[in-house]
Specification:
Elements (H helix, E strand, L loop, with lengths): L2 H26 L2 H15 L1 H28 L3 H15 L8 H20 L10 H7 L44 H17 L10 H21 L4 H21 L5 H4 L9 H47 L1
Helix pairs in contact: 1-2, 1-5, 2-9, 3-4, 3-9, 5-9, 7-8, 7-9
Length: about 325
Amino acid sequence: MPPIVTEIWNAFLVYPLVNLLVLADYFIHDFGLAVVIVTVAIRLALFPVFRAQVRSSRAMQELAPALNDLKKKHGNDRAKLQQEQMKLYQERGINPIGGCLPMVVFFPVLFAMYAAFQQVGGLSGAHALTIEQLRDAVLWPFLQFTVADRAPDATIDLTAHWLPWVSSLAQPDLLFFGFIGPLPIISSLLQLVASVQALPRNPPQTDDPTQRTMQSMTYYLPLITIVFFRTLASGVFIYYITTTIFQIIQQYFVMGWGQLPRWIPPLANIPTPADKTMRAREQAAIAEAEHDMEEPEAMAASGRNANGGGGRRRGRRRKR
Protein backbone atom coordinates (compact mmCIF):
# COMPACT_ATOMS: atom_id res chain seq x y z
CA MET A 1 0.00 0.00 0.00
CA PRO A 2 1.14 3.63 -0.51
CA PRO A 3 2.70 5.16 2.63
CA ILE A 4 -0.18 7.57 3.20
CA VAL A 5 -2.71 4.70 3.05
CA THR A 6 -0.59 2.65 5.44
CA GLU A 7 -0.42 5.55 7.89
CA ILE A 8 -4.20 6.03 7.79
CA TRP A 9 -4.75 2.27 8.14
CA ASN A 10 -2.48 2.11 11.19
CA ALA A 11 -3.78 5.28 12.80
CA PHE A 12 -7.49 4.46 12.58
CA LEU A 13 -7.55 0.66 12.95
CA VAL A 14 -4.32 -1.15 13.77
CA TYR A 15 -2.89 1.11 16.51
CA PRO A 16 -6.19 1.56 18.41
CA LEU A 17 -6.63 -2.21 18.28
CA VAL A 18 -3.09 -2.76 19.62
CA ASN A 19 -3.80 -0.38 22.50
CA LEU A 20 -7.08 -2.08 23.38
CA LEU A 21 -5.38 -5.49 23.39
CA VAL A 22 -2.52 -4.25 25.59
CA LEU A 23 -4.98 -2.52 27.93
CA ALA A 24 -7.04 -5.71 28.36
CA ASP A 25 -3.86 -7.75 28.86
CA TYR A 26 -2.75 -5.37 31.62
CA PHE A 27 -5.77 -6.35 33.75
CA ILE A 28 -5.93 -10.11 33.07
CA HIS A 29 -2.28 -10.95 32.23
CA ASP A 30 -3.21 -13.29 29.40
CA PHE A 31 -3.09 -12.05 25.82
CA GLY A 32 -5.41 -14.77 24.57
CA LEU A 33 -8.16 -13.69 26.98
CA ALA A 34 -7.39 -10.09 26.02
CA VAL A 35 -8.24 -10.96 22.40
CA VAL A 36 -11.52 -12.54 23.54
CA ILE A 37 -12.45 -9.48 25.62
CA VAL A 38 -11.66 -7.00 22.85
CA THR A 39 -13.55 -9.10 20.31
CA VAL A 40 -16.66 -9.25 22.51
CA ALA A 41 -16.40 -5.49 23.08
CA ILE A 42 -16.24 -4.88 19.31
CA ARG A 43 -19.23 -7.15 18.69
CA LEU A 44 -21.26 -5.43 21.40
CA ALA A 45 -20.38 -1.99 20.04
CA LEU A 46 -21.48 -3.08 16.57
CA PHE A 47 -24.45 -5.12 17.78
CA PRO A 48 -27.09 -2.99 16.00
CA VAL A 49 -25.27 -3.43 12.69
CA PHE A 50 -24.97 -7.20 13.00
CA ARG A 51 -28.55 -7.52 14.28
CA ALA A 52 -29.78 -5.66 11.20
CA GLN A 53 -27.71 -8.01 9.04
CA VAL A 54 -29.21 -11.13 10.62
CA ARG A 55 -32.74 -9.77 10.27
CA SER A 56 -32.09 -8.78 6.67
CA SER A 57 -30.82 -12.29 5.91
CA ARG A 58 -33.93 -13.79 7.50
CA ALA A 59 -36.21 -11.46 5.55
CA MET A 60 -34.47 -12.35 2.29
CA GLN A 61 -34.96 -16.04 3.05
CA GLU A 62 -38.66 -15.50 3.64
CA LEU A 63 -38.86 -13.57 0.39
CA ALA A 64 -37.08 -16.26 -1.65
CA PRO A 65 -40.27 -18.05 -2.90
CA ALA A 66 -41.74 -14.77 -4.19
CA LEU A 67 -38.44 -13.90 -5.88
CA ASN A 68 -38.38 -17.30 -7.57
CA ASP A 69 -41.91 -16.73 -8.88
CA LEU A 70 -40.82 -13.38 -10.33
CA LYS A 71 -37.85 -15.02 -12.05
CA LYS A 72 -40.11 -17.61 -13.64
CA LYS A 73 -42.58 -14.94 -14.76
CA HIS A 74 -40.13 -12.27 -16.01
CA GLY A 75 -36.99 -14.30 -16.56
CA ASN A 76 -36.67 -13.20 -20.18
CA ASP A 77 -37.20 -9.51 -19.42
CA ARG A 78 -34.30 -8.44 -17.19
CA ALA A 79 -35.45 -4.82 -16.82
CA LYS A 80 -38.98 -5.89 -15.85
CA LEU A 81 -37.59 -8.47 -13.43
CA GLN A 82 -35.43 -5.89 -11.65
CA GLN A 83 -38.35 -3.47 -11.51
CA GLU A 84 -40.65 -6.06 -9.94
CA GLN A 85 -37.93 -7.17 -7.50
CA MET A 86 -37.35 -3.62 -6.30
CA LYS A 87 -41.11 -3.14 -5.96
CA LEU A 88 -41.30 -6.28 -3.83
CA TYR A 89 -38.39 -5.12 -1.64
CA GLN A 90 -40.12 -1.76 -1.10
CA GLU A 91 -43.44 -3.39 -0.23
CA ARG A 92 -41.77 -5.59 2.39
CA GLY A 93 -39.42 -2.88 3.66
CA ILE A 94 -36.27 -4.87 2.84
CA ASN A 95 -32.89 -3.48 1.83
CA PRO A 96 -31.29 -6.11 -0.46
CA ILE A 97 -27.76 -4.95 0.39
CA GLY A 98 -28.42 -4.76 4.12
CA GLY A 99 -26.77 -8.14 4.66
CA CYS A 100 -23.48 -6.91 3.19
CA LEU A 101 -22.92 -4.00 5.58
CA PRO A 102 -21.43 -6.03 8.47
CA MET A 103 -18.85 -7.50 6.12
CA VAL A 104 -17.62 -3.96 5.51
CA VAL A 105 -16.85 -3.89 9.24
CA PHE A 106 -15.84 -7.51 9.85
CA PHE A 107 -13.07 -7.91 7.31
CA PRO A 108 -11.20 -4.66 8.05
CA VAL A 109 -11.12 -5.60 11.74
CA LEU A 110 -9.93 -9.10 10.83
CA PHE A 111 -7.07 -7.75 8.71
CA ALA A 112 -6.29 -5.12 11.35
CA MET A 113 -6.04 -7.88 13.97
CA TYR A 114 -3.56 -9.73 11.77
CA ALA A 115 -1.53 -6.54 11.27
CA ALA A 116 -1.61 -5.90 15.02
CA PHE A 117 -0.05 -9.28 15.76
CA GLN A 118 2.53 -8.68 13.06
CA GLN A 119 3.60 -5.44 14.66
CA VAL A 120 3.57 -6.41 18.34
CA GLY A 121 4.64 -10.03 17.95
CA GLY A 122 8.16 -9.58 16.69
CA LEU A 123 7.53 -11.33 13.41
CA SER A 124 10.34 -11.11 10.91
CA GLY A 125 9.90 -8.37 8.36
CA ALA A 126 9.56 -4.62 8.12
CA HIS A 127 6.24 -4.54 10.01
CA ALA A 128 7.58 -5.87 13.34
CA LEU A 129 8.00 -3.24 16.07
CA THR A 130 10.22 -3.43 19.16
CA ILE A 131 9.17 -2.34 22.64
CA GLU A 132 10.80 1.07 22.22
CA GLN A 133 9.08 1.64 18.89
CA LEU A 134 5.75 0.65 20.37
CA ARG A 135 6.23 3.01 23.29
CA ASP A 136 7.24 5.91 21.08
CA ALA A 137 4.81 5.61 18.20
CA VAL A 138 1.91 3.32 19.04
CA LEU A 139 0.95 2.82 22.67
CA TRP A 140 -0.89 5.28 24.86
CA PRO A 141 1.52 6.75 27.45
CA PHE A 142 -0.25 5.33 30.53
CA LEU A 143 -0.28 1.71 29.30
CA GLN A 144 1.85 -0.92 31.02
CA PHE A 145 2.56 -4.38 29.69
CA THR A 146 4.61 -7.54 30.16
CA VAL A 147 7.57 -8.19 27.87
CA ALA A 148 8.46 -11.64 26.56
CA ASP A 149 12.18 -11.25 27.42
CA ARG A 150 14.74 -8.56 28.20
CA ALA A 151 16.68 -8.63 24.96
CA PRO A 152 17.17 -5.34 23.05
CA ASP A 153 14.59 -6.44 20.49
CA ALA A 154 12.13 -7.64 23.14
CA THR A 155 8.44 -7.78 22.28
CA ILE A 156 5.20 -7.82 24.23
CA ASP A 157 4.40 -11.16 25.86
CA LEU A 158 1.70 -12.66 23.61
CA THR A 159 1.21 -15.85 25.58
CA ALA A 160 -2.19 -17.50 26.01
CA HIS A 161 -1.69 -19.62 29.13
CA TRP A 162 -4.70 -21.80 28.30
CA LEU A 163 -3.14 -22.74 24.94
CA PRO A 164 0.11 -24.41 26.07
CA TRP A 165 1.03 -25.61 22.58
CA VAL A 166 1.12 -22.02 21.23
CA SER A 167 4.23 -20.13 22.36
CA SER A 168 3.04 -16.79 20.95
CA LEU A 169 -0.26 -15.67 19.48
CA ALA A 170 1.71 -14.02 16.70
CA GLN A 171 2.75 -17.48 15.48
CA PRO A 172 0.54 -19.91 13.53
CA ASP A 173 -1.01 -22.92 15.22
CA LEU A 174 0.54 -25.92 13.43
CA LEU A 175 0.40 -28.49 16.23
CA PHE A 176 -0.53 -31.49 14.09
CA PHE A 177 2.47 -32.60 12.01
CA GLY A 178 3.49 -28.98 11.45
CA PHE A 179 0.58 -28.58 9.03
CA ILE A 180 -2.45 -27.45 11.05
CA GLY A 181 -3.53 -27.01 14.63
CA PRO A 182 -6.70 -27.09 16.77
CA LEU A 183 -7.49 -23.38 16.38
CA PRO A 184 -7.91 -23.41 12.57
CA ILE A 185 -9.96 -26.62 12.81
CA ILE A 186 -12.25 -25.24 15.53
CA SER A 187 -12.61 -22.01 13.58
CA SER A 188 -13.67 -23.87 10.43
CA LEU A 189 -16.16 -26.09 12.28
CA LEU A 190 -17.79 -23.08 13.93
CA GLN A 191 -17.94 -21.32 10.57
CA LEU A 192 -19.75 -24.37 9.18
CA VAL A 193 -22.21 -24.37 12.09
CA ALA A 194 -22.95 -20.65 11.67
CA SER A 195 -23.40 -21.00 7.90
CA VAL A 196 -25.76 -24.01 8.14
CA GLN A 197 -27.70 -22.27 10.92
CA ALA A 198 -28.17 -19.24 8.64
CA LEU A 199 -29.90 -21.37 5.98
CA PRO A 200 -33.73 -21.50 6.12
CA ARG A 201 -35.14 -24.63 7.75
CA ASN A 202 -37.42 -25.24 4.75
CA PRO A 203 -35.48 -23.90 1.77
CA PRO A 204 -37.56 -23.04 -1.28
CA GLN A 205 -37.14 -25.24 -4.32
CA THR A 206 -35.24 -23.39 -7.02
CA ASP A 207 -33.65 -24.11 -10.37
CA ASP A 208 -31.47 -21.01 -10.19
CA PRO A 209 -27.83 -22.17 -10.60
CA THR A 210 -26.60 -19.12 -8.68
CA GLN A 211 -28.68 -20.07 -5.65
CA ARG A 212 -27.47 -23.66 -5.83
CA THR A 213 -23.86 -22.51 -6.01
CA MET A 214 -24.32 -20.25 -2.97
CA GLN A 215 -25.81 -23.13 -0.99
CA SER A 216 -22.90 -25.38 -1.96
CA MET A 217 -20.38 -22.74 -0.88
CA THR A 218 -21.80 -23.03 2.63
CA TYR A 219 -20.00 -26.36 2.93
CA TYR A 220 -16.90 -25.49 0.88
CA LEU A 221 -15.88 -22.24 2.62
CA PRO A 222 -14.78 -23.89 5.91
CA LEU A 223 -12.50 -26.21 3.95
CA ILE A 224 -11.04 -23.22 2.12
CA THR A 225 -10.38 -21.60 5.51
CA ILE A 226 -8.39 -24.63 6.67
CA VAL A 227 -6.33 -24.96 3.52
CA PHE A 228 -5.49 -21.34 2.72
CA PHE A 229 -5.57 -19.53 6.08
CA ARG A 230 -4.15 -22.14 8.47
CA THR A 231 -0.84 -20.23 8.74
CA LEU A 232 -2.39 -17.02 10.07
CA ALA A 233 -1.41 -15.87 13.55
CA SER A 234 -3.06 -17.87 16.32
CA GLY A 235 -4.48 -14.68 17.80
CA VAL A 236 -6.43 -14.05 14.58
CA PHE A 237 -8.12 -17.43 14.96
CA ILE A 238 -9.05 -16.61 18.57
CA TYR A 239 -10.71 -13.46 17.24
CA TYR A 240 -12.48 -15.41 14.49
CA ILE A 241 -13.65 -18.15 16.89
CA THR A 242 -14.99 -15.62 19.39
CA THR A 243 -16.86 -13.56 16.81
CA THR A 244 -18.34 -16.72 15.22
CA ILE A 245 -19.63 -17.95 18.59
CA PHE A 246 -21.19 -14.52 19.08
CA GLN A 247 -22.78 -14.83 15.62
CA ILE A 248 -24.20 -18.30 16.40
CA ILE A 249 -25.80 -17.03 19.61
CA GLN A 250 -27.24 -14.01 17.82
CA GLN A 251 -28.67 -16.16 15.01
CA TYR A 252 -30.18 -18.51 17.62
CA PHE A 253 -32.32 -15.65 18.93
CA VAL A 254 -33.22 -14.15 15.53
CA MET A 255 -33.28 -17.11 13.11
CA GLY A 256 -33.48 -20.23 15.26
CA TRP A 257 -31.61 -23.42 14.36
CA GLY A 258 -31.88 -23.04 10.59
CA GLN A 259 -30.86 -26.28 8.91
CA LEU A 260 -28.81 -27.57 11.87
CA PRO A 261 -31.52 -30.13 12.81
CA ARG A 262 -30.77 -31.92 9.53
CA TRP A 263 -27.35 -32.80 10.96
CA ILE A 264 -28.23 -32.76 14.68
CA PRO A 265 -31.82 -34.17 14.86
CA PRO A 266 -32.38 -33.55 18.62
CA LEU A 267 -32.27 -29.81 17.94
CA ALA A 268 -35.60 -30.09 16.11
CA ASN A 269 -37.31 -30.74 19.48
CA ILE A 270 -35.74 -27.72 21.18
CA PRO A 271 -37.71 -24.50 20.59
CA THR A 272 -35.87 -21.23 20.04
CA PRO A 273 -36.84 -17.60 20.76
CA ALA A 274 -37.08 -17.06 17.00
CA ASP A 275 -39.82 -19.68 16.49
CA LYS A 276 -42.63 -17.49 17.84
CA THR A 277 -41.58 -14.54 15.70
CA MET A 278 -41.29 -16.69 12.57
CA ARG A 279 -44.73 -18.23 13.13
CA ALA A 280 -46.23 -14.77 13.52
CA ARG A 281 -44.61 -13.65 10.26
CA GLU A 282 -45.84 -16.76 8.45
CA GLN A 283 -49.39 -16.18 9.70
CA ALA A 284 -49.22 -12.53 8.66
CA ALA A 285 -48.00 -13.57 5.20
CA ILE A 286 -50.83 -16.10 4.87
CA ALA A 287 -53.41 -13.53 5.97
CA GLU A 288 -52.02 -11.02 3.47
CA ALA A 289 -52.15 -13.58 0.67
CA GLU A 290 -55.76 -14.52 1.54
CA HIS A 291 -56.72 -10.84 1.61
CA ASP A 292 -55.14 -10.31 -1.82
CA MET A 293 -57.13 -13.29 -3.17
CA GLU A 294 -60.41 -12.10 -1.66
CA GLU A 295 -60.19 -8.57 -3.09
CA PRO A 296 -60.70 -9.55 -6.78
CA GLU A 297 -63.59 -11.84 -5.81
CA ALA A 298 -65.24 -9.07 -3.77
CA MET A 299 -64.86 -6.60 -6.62
CA ALA A 300 -66.29 -9.10 -9.10
CA ALA A 301 -69.23 -9.83 -6.80
CA SER A 302 -70.00 -6.15 -6.33
CA GLY A 303 -69.88 -5.69 -10.10
CA ARG A 304 -72.35 -8.52 -10.63
CA ASN A 305 -74.70 -7.08 -8.02
CA ALA A 306 -74.57 -3.67 -9.65
CA ASN A 307 -75.30 -5.12 -13.09
CA GLY A 308 -78.08 -7.31 -11.74
CA GLY A 309 -79.72 -4.42 -9.90
CA GLY A 310 -79.63 -2.25 -12.99
CA GLY A 311 -81.19 -5.01 -15.08
CA ARG A 312 -84.06 -5.43 -12.67
CA ARG A 313 -84.71 -1.72 -12.60
CA ARG A 314 -84.75 -1.60 -16.37
CA GLY A 315 -87.15 -4.55 -16.45
CA ARG A 316 -89.55 -2.78 -14.12
CA ARG A 317 -89.48 0.34 -16.31
CA ARG A 318 -90.37 -1.69 -19.39
CA LYS A 319 -93.40 -3.22 -17.65
CA ARG A 320 -94.75 0.22 -16.91
